[in-house]
Write a structure and sequence with these properties.
Length: 142
Amino acid sequence: MRRQAAERYMSWVLMLVSSVVVLLSVGHEFLKEEYATGYGQFDVNISQSQLTLILVICAFSLLFSLPVVISKARPALRLRFFRNNRIEVLVSVTLCVLWIVALFIIQAPKYRVAVAPICKAIIIRNANLYFSSWAALFFYCI
């Protein structure tokens, strides 16, 4: 029983870290688009609504993973909400579904978030976002 709890705790920590990396990468893209001038014609076509949706998903994942990590690290701060394994599984499944949606948006070349089509080829625009979004989905679905 303790081994399973330790494995789940490590998954929550890794989810938290990957969520922070994705949040920072998307936030950088969002700010870059906010202050874009005529310099970056390539970056102008990123959909702000898609970036906002990814930011919201990252915020939800941080909202749930940070309290779980804190409560499991400090038994005195243990949350009653996450003592029940069913609730923890429900939160994990919900976050997994949200990350599947986010991954679809991040990886779609038409949105130009992490990858973009150039001259009949698809290139990776933002490697941090590309690989950490896959990591986030992997850690949420463990």
